[in-house]
Automatic annotation (TrEMBL), chain A:
The keyword Electron transport does not apply. It is found in: Cytoplasm; Nucleus. This is Integrator complex subunit 9. SUPFAM superfamilies: Metallo-hydrolase/oxidoreductase. Pfam families: Beta-Casp, IntS9_C, Lactamase_B_6.
TrEMBL record, chain B:
It is found in: Cytoplasm. Belongs to the BRAT1 family. Keywords: Cytoplasm. The gene is BRAT1. It comes from the Eukaryota. Gene3D superfamilies: Leucine-rich Repeat Variant. This is BRCA1-associated ATM activator 1 isoform X4. InterPro entries: ARM-like, ARM-type_fold, BRAT1.
Amino acid sequence: MKLYCLSGHPTLPCNVLKFKSTTIMLDCGLDMTSTLNFLPLPLVQSPRLSNLPGWSLKDGNAFLDKELKECSGHVFVDSVPEFCLPETELIDLSTVDVILISNYHCMMALPYITEHTGFTGTVYATEPTVQIGRLLMEELVNFIERVPKAQSASLWKNKDTQRLLPSPLKDAVEVSTWRRCYTMQEVNSALSKIQLVGYSQKIELFGAVQVTPLSSGYALGSSNWIIQSHYEKVSYVSGSSLLTTHPQPMDQASLKNSDVLILTGLTQIPTANPDGMVGEFCSNLALTVRNGGNVLVPCYPSGVIYDLLECLYQYIDSAGLSSIPFYFISPVANSSLEFSQIFAEWLCHNKQTKVYLPEPPFPHAELIQTNKLKHYPSIHGDFSNDFRQPCVVFTGHPSLRFGDVVHFMELWGKSSLNTVIFTEPDFSYLEALAPYQPLAMKCIYCPIDTRLNFIQVSKLLKEVQPLHVVCPEQYTQPPPAQSHRVDLMIDCQPPAMSYRRAEVLALPFRRRYEKIEIMPELADSLVPMEIKPGISLATVSAVLHTKDNKHVLQPPPRPAQPTGGKKRKRPSDDIPDCKVLKPLLSGSIPVEQFVQTLEKHGFSDIKVEDTAKGHIVLLQEAETLIQIEEDSTHIICDNDEVLRVRLRDLVLKFLQKF
Amino acid sequence: MDPECSRLLPALCAVLVDPRQPVADDTCLEKLLDWFKTVTEAGPSLLLLQENPCLVELLFRVLKAHDPHPRVLSFSLRLAGLFAAQEDCFQYLQQGELLPMLFGEAGPLGGAAWTAPTVRSGWLQGLRSLAQHPSALLFLADCGAVDTIFSLQGDSSLFVASAAGQLLVHILALAMQSPAEGHPSPQGCDWPACAQKIVCHVEDSLHSTATPQVTQALNVLTTTFGHCHGPWTQGLWVRLSPLVACLLEKDPIPASHSLMDLLLSVARSPVGSSDCGLWETLAQTLSHLSPIQAGPLALGILKLQDCPQALKTQAFGVLLQPLACVLKAAAQSPGPPGFPEGATGDSMTVDTFLSSKSACVGLLCQALAHLELLQLLPQRPSPWPQAPLLRAAVAILRFCNGSAAPTSDVGGHLCAVLAGCVRVQRAALDFLGTLSQGTGPQELVTQVFAVLLEYLTSPDSSPTVQVLKKAFQATLRWLLGSPKAPSCCDLDPHTQLFLRELLPVLRKRLCSPCWEARDSGLEFLTQVTRHWGEVPELTRQLLRDPESYVRASAVTATGQLSSWGLYTTPTSPEHPEVQQESLFTELLHILSTDSEGFPRRAVMQVFTQWLKDGHADVAEDLEQFVARVLQVASRDLDWEVRAQGLELALVFLEQLLGHPGSRCPYAVALPEAAAPATLAQVLQALCRVQLFEFALRALFDCDRPVAQKSCDLLLFLRAKATPCGGPQEAGASPDVVSVEAALQRWQAGEQGQPLGELEPEAVMAVLRSMDLEGLRGTLAKSSDHIEKSPQSLLQDLLASVGVLGENEADCY
């Protein structure tokens, strides 16, 4: 059993598991942090961005000044943003049989895999994952395609050139494999390969293994996966949450008794408690708005935003913010708000019960109805007519490199009255803000990451007790910035195995058993003999028939009747030679009784020695040894066959035959 | 007893024994007992029983009742005990064999009612009241009650068990004090039988291997030494201390808590002061116990009034151990933590820290709570290691919020264990708050404020489990305890810096969606403002600051506070009835005497604002106020003060005329009100406050802005007065002549002479005769208008030409 690790990002995993005869890809996350190296794509012509000076080398060589621009001491690539794909060279991706998706954030690289690698398999995911994943992809494609950029920079990627660049460009990894965003056509084609599944549904893969999605509690339709054969069980835990937010709670019990537990997608901000962060979010929002400033919340169109809107729904009246407009701007804003209301079966119990009242499960419906929350596909069109300040704007993309957020950063960045509040943990907020410096606007970082923290992980591991834990290397040591926080790492016994990008891991367990079925007529012919209470044995002679990873014992064909129909036998019709087998022995030899028996049969001067594995009975007179061990008995005598046979018979008296 | 009560008593007794009328509320019975207690204390019980035979009858009937209510039974037992407390009454009841029936084998003891804890408790309390005299001792011995009490020590009801223990102590003390027995020797061989029996029982229990029995015996002894101080207690300790010593040698020590209590109780009693062996035992015990067990004992030792200094030092060391450990673990570089010797973070404490999270947390919380208690005691160890304790508290709080970066292994472990631990956070914040009573080196105080700010700011400081609240409380205590520089009343710079950073935090917390956070924030704010009632006093003192800018600001601040009603005139402590000078007088004093302009200008601004706002002090006597201010302002050397005086005069004028200048142009206009009579009154008032003299003097002020303002004011006044004033021809009156003459002299620069009393008519006549518009035109020209005029330009040109000519002549 091997694990091929194609992504180094712990929360955007992409691993391939070879288990029995199947090749299973676990998630295909897309690392979008690479876009932080690019200049933002402004929706409205920005003189500031277009007039940035080109960057030249220390020696004054300016051959890169078309590609690289300098802004407040940072250098950015002036080109269409590109993404860092999972490793494609480590394993032939056309051999992947299935892809299991755990949540909508972990499928963003899907079109790259399904459309460009010769992949012919099936993708499994839950319905909300697919629908919201589609929204995320649609938004991404839309954000990038609506700001066409002629230039595609490539000179800087030259290895010799890259070495000369300032950080972080210098340290960017695998830049040659970075790719531009996919098209909507590719998205549609990729999504068409998905087969929808429900929680706890068992899916057979080639008869060899069975995969099952379990609720993971992190997002709508998010799942962990169980991959099991008859005797082995691998659990894949990716992006799980034990907090009570909108999705169905996490199913922990089904993860018990795993041989291997692959653990990814823990919280990215282990020191920030989501409750405290939500409080920060609300307080800072209220403070800004009361002082007449605007609040910008860069976010994804789905996920935490539902919880934030719910908090605000409860908070705005008490904080006196009822008259402040809330805007949600995204090409998929409408669909996201609507979709959230229709996936009732995937929601937590509280929200499910609302549906039967009937009420919309999320209170943002009421915010929309009362005109407190308005949503628009983009800043163009209706929004510009309704726009009123001070206000609160939720919009993407959280990287601040594309999407409507770029416009608001340019618009509001100059006033210290305004605040940008970062709630998504995926991007470093300082790096995200770098191309907007100098910035007068206040910045508040309150990342809300509901995924498991290390305390919860240690409780989970105690509860489900896997034999082995496999996780990204980042989880096996404290965070680099807080090296003394030994509580911020996975602590389990035996220690977790860690992986990093482009590594192949041999998983530490061997398959020892395989299930074989016996045909009824063959079973009928068996004559079991009870050798211990509850344990019976029988010998069986049969033909082992293997097909589609299923093994069946069939009765051996009867000896062929000498009919004249067939003159020549095909080799496959050969009847296996059924030799007359020696009987099998079982039981153990009680040494004291054995010695007494020997004495009764005239042997004297018997000595017994204890050895590590059993006993040695020494017949000193006859110069003979009888070695009795757990699974073997040896009679060693000097060419005295008669004596040996006598002794053998005495030994056999103590054993059962069948 | 009150005859009326006597009359009611038989009916009450009948009700009590009537099973058909159960007493629903046993607090009535308690009140009844209280009343009987006062009655029996006030007079002879015997008489009471004889006069009210229903009471004895009640006791009999309760006993005879088939199934008495447990509450009534318990009540009867306690009542009988109360009566029997007096020996004659005891004898009286004995005659009727009532007491054995109540308290002996034949009584409720062993009956069905005994299963009710209230009955057992009543039985014990009855005996407790009864056991007051030697006859009672005999009775107890006869009816075998002591054995029953022994068994009740292990009762399932804690109240009963505790009462049994206390009763034993009481009986023991009674037996030993009984005059019939004389003065028993301390050795115990001639002790009364009853006492012997109890002591033997205690001895047996101490020998027992069952911990509950040992605990019972220890509790009895603890109470004995706590309450009885007779010489016999000395003998008792001599007899039992070897047994106690045996217990201490066992491993683990059985009933260690009770044992510690006993040792401390003995140490506090007179026995302790005479027994040197006790101090040794305590010292040994301290060193044998695990850190968590030793804590309470150490605290108890430190609370003792007189105990050897060495033992105190050892005990203090025990309490400091955990904190010393923390300091050692947190230290970036090895160095002495600064604690006294004996507290060096020994290996036992370290082991406890490392053994488990709960042990570590428990030990730290206990140490912090003990030290907090100790800090408040007068007999706390001296010198008190304030600085290292502060450092330790800060270190613990940093471990808890994950901001510590220790290098040692123990430090790393503590960090992992304590990160986010709410219990320790609360204990440490409480402790830190208590430490605010002492001082500390400045850099430590800065650290304290820094860590408090971290806690107040951090979203992880949970508002729901009181971490935030305690952080606010500790902050408050540090702010209030913040040392003030002796020479000035201002807050020290660190506190000021802290306050500056605290404000945004507080603002944010008051906006929190979590009600606990808003509530804690408000509580803090209330406390701060309550304690800072001294702020007005502070600002008042700053009115005399040596720096003129500060005085000016103080003037503005006090004026503002006074407008909001936050400034009350202090009364002098010696003569509360005599008010000290009002703020107005004080500010007026500044206006007339301050050598710098800024404070005087500030005073004028405050006065103008007061006048606009209708400040209470001003409204009291408006004319007096304006008159005094103008009088002082007119003599001021600073033109800005004089200009401000005119501003004030204008406000006054507008108020008198009922035409506020800033009136809304769209407001519905009131009918023009100023009737001639009213106008005359206005002019009278203006004369009374000598506004005219002030304004006219200003008209010829050497500073142009003042003259301009005055001109505007007089023009405004003239415009208002003319339509109503009528063309009274006063031109020739002597008043007008003298005014005009004075004005001419003023214009010429001789301003010494006052105008004296003026009649409104004369003033108006003068105003009308003056060319105010012309004057305004002149004043509007800037001082360099002559230099800028074309005439000047031409002259300049001509002059320069002349110079050129001269130069030419020079050349040849």
